[in-house]
Here is the input.
Amino acid sequence: MTTKLSPDDLVGAAGGGLLHRRVLLKSGLALASAGFVSVGHATDTDPAKAPAIENPASPSWMHQPGSPFSGYGVPSKFENRIVRSIGSNRDLPGNGVSWTPLESIEGIITPSSLHFERHHNGVPDIDPAQHRLVIHGLVRAPLSFTIDDLLRYPMQSQMLFVECGGNSNAGWHEEPIQRSVGSFHGLVSCSEWAGVPLAILLDQVGIDPKAAWVIAEGADAAVMNVSLPVSKLMDDAIVALYQNGERIRPENGYPLRLIVPGWEGVVNVKWLRRLHITDQPVMARNETAKYTELLPSGKARMFTFVMEAKSLITSPSSGQKMRGPDVYEIKGLAWSGRGKIKKVEVSADGGTSWMEAALQEPVLSRCFTRFRAAWKWNGEPAVLKSRATDETGYVQPERDVLVAERGRDGYFHYNAIVAWEIDEDGAIRHVYA
Ligand SMILES: Nc1nc2c(c(=O)[nH]1)N[C@H]1C(S)=C(S)[C@@H](COP(=O)(O)O)O[C@H]1N2
Ligand SMILES: [Mo]
Here is the structure.
């Protein structure tokens, strides 16, 4: 059912023009008539510059048969600007990252082709017939699995985010970085991962009671290895073979990767080849030189596995432009490595007043949650913020709180509230506010 907005609906529920949730429900399909707009994404043409439709009653594509079938589909050529942005090392192009364009995707699933990437030494071209997963060390009976072996196990799937521990690290900079939300915060993506629960394989090899750690190793030329507590792996880790219904993409770990729900990206070892069961961590480069951080107290944080709750407004966001005073949809993503998102609040006055956003179903544990709010922008300067609370009661901190707690030597695990400032021309900038 669609009802027109009434003047009553446009009375603010919080400062700066945030409107009651019923506006989202009511406006439904009548967005255009109700004057309810979203800033839109990069492929949108500016209405002022849009070419006139040649023949609206009878467009050319209705005059001849369309293209034949295709074995494997690709996106429309009109969407070819929606790509990952790449930041890589010039001398070693396989070392670096690519960011998911978070401002250009909708819902909660990231298309596999836009899943962010982090490789330490490129994407290996693994022949699945020659690949093995070996589980050995403090076990009763070491085992070596072929991919075919693993495909015969009962499987489970779960929708889970993967986030690099270094995501959003530009937030530690002295000056707010001016980039699209995706190329600032896009080292996070969310997929449906399917595979074999690792507990089944660990039960099969029979873990020695003395075992406390598992060293997981990848088959890339970086020979990535990380240490993980046995308890977490027994609890909910997945040896994933599928991503969003199809076999995992090479860049995300084909033919198999470890998925460790809610924990920092680096422990989700791609191209998994070995799980060595031990009584102590390996103290590899990626858990000592990296992913370990000095605190103001002089102590170091180490093995900070869990990704704490975070939220971002993806639209309107940095680098986009408002289309004049109107009623807008504010939308964004929230997630927590500790469980479900309980609420997301939004502010249009820089955090003076807050309003609870609508959470779109499903709200799943350690998965992206989509939030939406209605906002009447009157054309005056405004500062938008979002703040997530997860089911443990943890509240996403303001930036000054995070910096006071963690000091200025931080690089990883930046999850502070993000602020977008809108000026009277409708330009949107990232600010620390
Ligand atoms: N074997 C291997 N596994 C790896 C990496 C790697 O370079 N090699 N990078 C890690 C890091 S730092 C992250 S953030 C995630 C990124 O996963 P994605 O590329 O599928 O997004 O993979 C992790 N697993
Ligand atoms: Mo990472």
In short: The first helix runs from residue 22 to 27. The domain at 310-431 is CATH 2.60.40.650 (Immunoglobulin-like). The helical segments are 22-27, 31-34, 147-151, 182-185, 198-205, 230-236, 285-288, 399-406.
